[in-house]
Write a structure and sequence with these properties.
It contains 20 helices and no strands. It is an all-alpha fold. The protein has one domain. Helix 3 packs parallel to helix 19, helix 6 runs parallel beside helix 19 and helix 7 runs parallel beside helix 20. The longest helix has 34 residues.
């Protein structure tokens, strides 16, 4: 019963959000609370709990995303202040003067930039660097923000297979394998996956070009929208180099800070203070700037904390564990030799059902153990899993805070982002699965 309730929770939540019958915040909190209450009557043994325990489940879930929520709020304020000061405007004008208004070049450049930045394996860092930098370019040309979010998501997701990325490390740990022994055979499949991302970026760019009615690519300076008098008063052209230095300092802090115990939220809190004091030392102006950006920051932060509540209830109620056991039990023994193939096919969609810890430390060992009983190496199952589960799947999953960071920074609807990105993400995962089978990285 817990498994059924778990699947219903995810399906109903996704349906409500994607059909816009409920806002993400309402769906992420309301649906699991209702199913969590129902599940309490079916919980037995050591995992038994009462309705009153739901509050604790939600609190523990919020605790897992609290740091990300703080980072999100202060990153929005930081980039908002720099935008007000006009820091990005000359940079964008220079970029546009080089690439013109060719959406195809912009789309391909977006994918390549995201791939490079995601070499550190952090989705949050990738989104925080890519989206604010490229969003004004997309707006100036007239390209849809959803296209930006989709391309960045595809590039970051495929790069997330790197051996220092969370999914691969978790898989290697769960399988008690050396991480490079697990990863090395999927290098070629990952390369093909990245090529597929570039192909999809080209397709999306071509579609944007068609929608904009561009028949001839022009190289030259593109005129950005005229600023209002109020916006002109906020510009700080004399502080351009200082503000660029702040951005570079923040990026360096994000990339290497983790090695020295400096968290991303700390980087953005300090960066925000510096940006505010340097650009707008007047207290009245500081308050006005915070007020101007507070709405978008708080709106998406609320979705982030709602996602934490969703995860907390799903994990602590036992529904995710029951779902993993159910998935294994419904696979007929005659299909056992295809476990790796089946795992690869469901790996990306599984990101919508399981958070990475639950999948790699809960579902994967069960799948691997079952496969070994039929003479299939557990490593094949693990490699199939990392081709989609919280790699190509993480930037669309409601179970990862960075997903909401992405859509929040890009200013796109969560449901729209899922509908547009999931087919491409699934296709990239399947491409890598096919290449893995051909190269022998996965066998059955």
């Amino acid at each position: 019963m817990l498994a059924i309730l778990g699947f219903l929770t995810v399906i109903i939540m996704l349906a409500l959000v994607m059909t816009k019958k409920a806002s993400p915040t309402v769906a992420l909190i309301g649906v699991p609370v209702i199913t969590g209450i129902i599940a309490s009557f079916f919980s037995v043994g050591e995992n038994a709990y009462s309705i009153l325990d739901l509050g604790g489940f939600i609190t523990s879930g919020i605790g897992t995303v609290a740091a990300t929520g703080v980072m999100f709020i202060f990153s929005i304020l930081f980039f908002g202040i720099l935008t007000d000061a006009g820091t990005f405007r000359p940079i964008i004008e220079k970029i546009l003067s080089i690439i013109g208004i060719d959406p195809i070049k912009i789309a391909l450049g977006t994918a390549i930039l995201a791939m490079i930045i995601h070499l550190d394996g952090s989705g949050a860092v990738t989104f925080l660097i890519c989206i604010p930098a490229l969003l004004p370019v997309y707006d100036a040309v007239g390209m849809r923000r959803s296209t930006l979010a989709t391309i960045v998501a595809l590039a970051a997701g495929t790069m997330n297979i790197v051996p220092w990325g969370g999914p691969t490390i978790r898989a290697a740990t769960a399988m008690e394998m050396n991480v490079m022994d697990l990863y090395s055979p999927v290098i070629i499949p990952q390369i093909f996956g990245l090529i597929a991302v570039l192909v999809f970026a080209f397709i999306l760019g071509k579609k944007e070009k068609s929608n904009l009615g561009i028949t001839e690519v022009k190289v030259g300076k593109v005129q950005l929208p005229e600023l209002t008098d109020e916006e002109k008063e906020l510009l700080r052209p004399n502080l351009f180099l200082v503000n660029v230095g702040l951005i570079l300092l923040a990026i360096v802090g994000l990339i290497i800070g983790g090695k020295h115990g400096i968290k991303p939220e700390v980087v953005f809190m300090v960066s925000f203070v510096l940006a505010m004091v340097i650009n707008y030392p007047n207290v009245k102006t500081q308050k006005a700037r915070v007020d101007a950006h507070a709405k978008s920051a708080i709106l998406m932060a609320s979705v982030l904390f709602a996602a934490g509540a969703f995860t907390g209830i799903m994990k602590n109620s036992g529904m995710i564990t029951a779902m993993s056991e159910a998935l294994v039990s419904i696979i007929p023994s005659s299909f056992a030799k295809y476990f790796a193939l089946i795992t690869g096919i469901i790996s990306m969609p599984a990101s919508l059902l399981f958070d990475p810890d639950s999948f790699y430390f809960g579902v994967l060992p069960v799948l691997s153990s079952t496969a070994k009983g039929f003479g299939i190496e557990g490593a094949y199952i693990a490699r199939a899993a990392i081709l989609g589960q919280m790699t190509t799947g993480f930037p669309v999953s409601p179970l990862t805070p960075s997903t909401f960071l992405l859509v929040g920074l890009a200013g796109v609807d969560f449901g729209e982002h899922q509908k547009k990105t999931i087919p491409f993400a699934f296709a990239v995962s399947i491409v890598m699965l096919i290449v893995s089978i051909v190269t022998g990285a996965i066998s059955f």
